[in-house]
Automatic annotation (TrEMBL):
InterPro entries: PsdUridine_s_RsuA/RluB/E/F_cat (IPR042092), PsdUridine_synth_cat_dom_sf (IPR020103), PsdUridine_synth_RsuA/RluA (IPR006145), PsdUridine_synth_RsuA/RluB/E/F (IPR000748), PsdUridine_synth_RsuA/RluB_CS (IPR018496), RsuA_PseudoU_synthase (IPR050343), S4_RNA-bd (IPR002942), S4_RNA-bd_sf (IPR036986)
Catalytic activity: uridine(516) in 16S rRNA = pseudouridine(516) in 16S rRNA
Pfam families: PseudoU_synth_2 (PF00849), S4 (PF01479)
Lineage: Bacteria, Pseudomonadati, Pseudomonadota, Gammaproteobacteria, Alteromonadales
Any one Gene Ontology molecular-function term assigned to this protein's record: RNA binding
Taxonomic source organism: Colwellia psychrerythraea (strain 34H / ATCC BAA-681) (Vibrio psychroerythus)
Family: Belongs to the pseudouridine synthase RsuA family.
Name this polypeptide is given: Pseudouridine synthase
Keywords: Isomerase, RNA-binding
SUPFAM superfamilies named in the record: Alpha-L RNA-binding motif (SSF55174), Pseudouridine synthase (SSF55120)
The gene coding this protein: rsuA
Keyword Cell cycle annotated: no
Keyword Ligase: no
EC code(s) of this entry: 5.4.99.-
Length: 243
């Protein structure tokens, strides 16, 4: 890891403050003065500021129940970043492991461990993400099994070179659907990749339209009773499945 990043991780200093301390010559790596912010260091190195030894704070891992009109980005745009919801130090030093659209709700994982988030996001790792999807058109009984088979064998999305990976589609039976509802069917969809607007584009490819989208599960991690807008630290068990 870069030396300035290590200093930020192990103190309350910002990246700019860390660089200032480095310039001042107060930082030593293995007893040698170190001024280069980009120097690569390891936790086993003896790193001191003004003689005080630093030890890197461990990585941080959170789950958040995203609400609509917030964005999975480290900068605010039309809508505010979900990172404002986390009442933790230096929340904007964290990143989001698998984005959701502004109008999508549900499970978001947030960390500062790049290798861990790669294990969550990379299609090669085949991590399952399950979405509850509300659709504008009904799925007729006689078309359901053919549709399930199409999702299983892969769909061609516009502008993509390869078919989507096998996805598991299950229809949810709805009791008492009122005429005014914006949707006519509800399904659960499990995918193992995260192409841009993937779920919306998959249903567009089969002639339907997503009118509501909510991520319920990533790997074995679920929202449980986390209310919309709430967050918590992940447990050791939840963290290790992607370590
Ligand atoms: N697929 C989408 O289309 N949108 C999301 O937010 C997540 C998956």
């Amino acid at each position: 890891m870069r030396l300035d990043k290590f200093i930020c991780k192990s103190t309350e200093l910002t990246r700019t403050e860390a660089k200032k301390v480095l310039k001042s010559g107060e930082v030593r790596v293995n007893n040698e003065v170190a001024k280069n912010a980009a120097m690569q260091v390891h936790e086993n190195n003896l790193i001191t500021i003004d003689g005080q030894q630093l030890s890197a704070r461990g990585s941080r891992y959170y789950i958040l129940h995203k609400i609509v009109d917030t964005i999975c980005s480290n900068v605010d745009e039309i809508y505010p970043s979900v990172l404002h919801s986390l009442e933790v130090d230096k929340a904007f030093d964290l990143h989001i492991a698998g984005r959701l659209d502004a109008d999508t709700t549900g499970l978001v994982l947030i960390t500062d461990d790049g290798r861990w988030s790669h294990n969550v996001i990379s299609p090669k790792k085949q991590c399952q993400k399950t979405y509850r999807v509300w659709l504008r058109s009904e799925i007729d009984d006689d078309k359901l099994s053919a549709l399930v088979a199409r999702f299983d064998s892969g769909l061609q999305l516009q502008g993509e070179d390869s078919l989507t990976r096998p996805a598991i589609l299950t229809r949810v039976e709805i009791d008492n659907l009122v005429d005014e509802a914006s949707y006519r069917s509800e399904v659960l969809l499990t995918i193992t990749e995260g192409k841009y607007h993937q779920v919306k584009r998959m249903f567009a490819a089969v002639g339907n339209r997503v009118v509501g989208l909510h991520r319920e599960q990533i790997g074995k991690i679920t929202l449980g009773d986390l209310a919309p807008g709430e967050w918590r630290e992940l447990t050791e068990d939840e963290i290790t499945q992607f370590s």
